[in-house]
Write a structure and sequence with these properties.
By secondary structure, the protein is mainly alpha-helical. The chain has a domain of 92 residues: Alpha Horseshoe (Serine Threonine Protein Phosphatase 5, Tetratricopeptide repeat).
């Protein structure tokens, strides 16, 4: 997850060291002097007094937001003052930097979101589950703060949903997924996690119906297309799954994932010859792709097609002579065909590689 770095210290230095307008109240003038002296508390008192005396001056609330509350990381008050400044004058710009209230809200949101992103990335690197969960909770809290500043930001909804998904907190995954939708945001990752936590026996038909609508509206969302097929396969609606897979390939003939899924469904429905033709098409597009060979070898092995599993395992080993999985599939396929002596030979190689 990318982070955005914002330095309020630099901004405030420029903001208050350079601006000393002649047409301003004594309280605002005093506040700017206090800012230059790094006496933020005294500046705050002057500005609060000015706010009472000059309720229609957008500069006062802007200074409170940027000079007092943002450096203190009191985001709620900072947002409140920026919104007040904007309400007083939607065109107000800070004279030196030219920044508007919206510009500052974006900067504040960026800083808080970045803190959440940093906690999230630390959680992904954590070795122990307790530490990981603790960091994910900190990340979620920061993302929540960021959403309180700006409620229309896809990256923050994405981050908080991922946090709660990893924490296995289904209620909050659903809550923030729906809030994102209400904000007019479509994010394939958010939807992917949302439908996973909702995939329960009593909601299956509803999930499938919503997935059908989502994939129709967003055909580019490959993960959701695959998730829909996965769920239909899980409940043995194979003919429907097969029809969808063929439609997807017709719309995107070069999509290897779709073609591989079609091959798997064909195998599940007993159409092994056609399944292997699809596997061959996958390999023709990716002749040196060991991951594709692993997937195909495993798929054939799971379908008890020992001959083809052996063939693909040999191809895998030819590309990667140290492939433990390749030797594992090979010796087991040979064993299931009754070739015990040759199976033992490759089992020994597999065992030796595992010990290295």
């Amino acid at each position: 997850m990318k982070t955005i770095q914002v330095s309020f210290a630099i901004l405030i230095t420029v903001l208050f060291a350079l601006m000393m307008s002649a047409c301003q109240s004594p309280e605002v003038t005093s506040a700017k002097v206090y800012f230059q002296q790094n006496n933020v508390d005294a500046a705050e008192q002057q500005l609060l007094s000015a706010l009472d005396k000059e309720p229609t001056n957008p500069e006062v609330s802007f200074l409170l937001a940027t000079g007092v509350y943002a450096p203190r990381k009191d985001w709620a008050k900072s947002k409140q003052m920026l919104q007040l400044s904007k309400k007083i004058s939607s065109t107000y710009r800070e004279p030196v930097t030219g920044l508007t209230a919206d510009d500052m809200l974006k900067r504040i949101w960026s800083e808080v979101h970045s803190q959440g992103a940093n906690f999230f990335n630390d959680a992904l690197r954590a070795l122990f589950q307790m530490e990981k969960d603790s960091l994910l909770k900190l990340a979620a809290a920061k993302f929540q703060e960021a959403l309180e500043i700006r409620t229309d930001q896809d990256p923050t909804y994405n981050g908080i949903v991922k946090c709660y998904f990893l924490l296995k907190d289904s209620a909050n995954v659903i809550k923030y997924s729906l809030l994102a939708s209400e904000a007019g945001i479509f994010d394939k990752d958010i939807n992917f996690y949302y439908y996973q936590v909702r995939w329960t026996p009593d909601q299956r038909e509803s999930v499938l119906s919503e997935l059908a609508q989502a994939t129709m509206a967003h055909p580019e969302a490959t993960d959701l297309q695959i998730l829909r097929i996965q769920y239909l396969t899980e409940i043995q609606r194979l003919e429907e799954t097969l029809s969808i897979a063929r439609q997807l390939i017709a719309s995107d003939p070069n999509n290897v994932d779709y073609r591989f899924i079609l091959a798997q469904i064909l195998a599940k429905t007993g159409q092994f010859e056609e399944a292997n033709l699809e596997y061959q098409k996958v390999l023709a597009a990716n002749p040196d792709d060991t991951e594709a060979l692993i997937r195909i070898a495993e798929a054939n092995f799971k379908n008890s097609d020992w001959v083809n599993a052996e063939d693909y395992a040999r191809r895998l080993i030819a590309l990667d002579p140290k492939s433990i999985l390749g030797y594992e599939i090979l010796w087991k396929s040979l064993y299931n065909q009754g070739n015990l002596e040759e199976a033992e030979k490759y089992r020994a190689i597999s065992k030796e590689l595992q010990q290295q």
